[in-house]
Specification:
Blueprint (H helix, E strand, L loop, with lengths): L8 H15 L15 H10 L8 E13 L2 E8 L2 E8 H4 L1 H10 L5 E10 L5 E12 L15 H6 L1 H7 L1 H23 L3 E2 L5 E2 L11 E4 L4 E5 L4 H9 L4 E9 L11 E10 L3 H20 L3 E4 L2 E4 L6 E3 H9 L9 H10 L10 H12 L8 E7 L8 E2 L2 E12 L2 E2 L1 E5 L4 H16 L10 H8 L5 E7 H9 L17
Parallel strand pairs: 3-5, 6-10, 14-15
Antiparallel strand pairs: 1-2, 1-4, 2-3, 4-5, 7-9, 8-9, 10-11, 11-20, 12-13, 15-17, 16-17, 17-18, 17-19, 19-20
Length: 492
Amino acid sequence: MEKLEELTDQQRQRLLKLERIRQHGIDPYPARVQRTHTAAEARRNYEADESFGEEKIILTGRLVAIRKMGKITFAHIADGSGKIQLFFQHNVLGEENYRFFLQNFDIGDFIEAHGHLFRTRTGEITLNVEKYRLLAKALHPLPEKWHGLKDVELRYRRRYLDLLANEDVRQLFITRSRIVKAMRHFLDSKGFIEVETPILQPIYGGAAARPFETWYHALERKFYLRISDELYLKRLIVGGYEKVYEIGKDFRNEGLDVRHNPEFTMMECYQAYADYHDMMRLTEEMIAFIAQEVLGTTRITYAGHEIDLTPPWPRATMRDLLIEYTGIDFEEYRDLESLRKAIEKRNLQVDPKPTWGKQVDELFSEYVEPYLIQPIFVMDYPVEISPLAKRKPEAPHLVERFEPFVGGMEIGNAFSELNDPLDQRERFLEQAEARERGDEEAHPIDEDYIFALMHGMPPTGGLGIGIDRLTMLLTDKQSIREVILFPQLRTL
């Protein structure tokens, strides 16, 4: 807490009030609360039958407005269900109690109010307060006198103030909760079971990313925060489950931008006896279902674009899209040097990458991805950037992998899962060589996972969907920080 000399006049006054309340023998932070109805329940009951006003009720909430008018005072409180008006009268409460409220209560304080409902001359349902009690004294005033918190950086750093000041932000995170609930409902209805896998892992894997490291003192060894749930979920497929999913946190030690947060939420699901075509159908059905459940429509607006999520979504190969948008056919440039020359010849500005596959992916990200506004599945990626996906039989340098794109961003990733343990070992060894050449995101070798595959894994389709990006899409937010309650921020 700030030093006394650093406090504002309002904060000093609130501290003085706190001390005065205690001097009256009142606990400003009592341990017990009474409440008979929420604000919404009280209003609903009264609107249904005004004889409800004869019943004595108890409401609780935060004071968000106080209007003093001599011998009477109007106030509004807000709880999780909404707002309701309170009416304080000198002749009902008595001189001492009425004056005590005016002298010691502030906007932001929590109050318990006892009384009967009535309707004012303006028609507003109001509680005629006969008794009140302080539940919590707020020592800081609410942001900008309740008119809204606008500073974006402050909103993210002090999300509790953002939620207090901005109703639309509170509603956004209710929508996010409903998105996750609808996703669970869809997967459960398809016969998937929800499971939990380790977040602390001795060997991280399942994606190309740099991990966060920690030290496990009891075991005296380095552990990692997971970058993906994939390898453990596929161990469960080996173990006999046919449909599994997990919704949870993943962590990648990467930069911060409007689409990346190092701590993020993923849904990953795996289905035995399926391939990436089956997972495409699952994806488009699931996202359309979620949109319909949460928004009541499969037609949405994102970043000014009207988008239709109705299945089926178009399918297109990465190769065909690169030809369309850049004129480069990567099949004609099968090594890194020739590909870079083709990029330079067309005056395309792309960051150099250490491998052919990563250069193809970077070219796609820069010149194709931003234009994929309507939902589409992009298929068939280079094998060297997809070490866990099954090769295409007719083109073994590519894999049966797709990414769903909507609104100019990738919202997921999916494979026909590689279940050949010998091929998997070779892929891991190639990744190890890439790591020796300086690729910090190369996949480590997981011998236990290979050992699991040696016992046989059926043909399997896998899918990962980013909950944060899906929420961005369905709430029309262009920054991932808007849809994460407590996003990671740079140190001030």
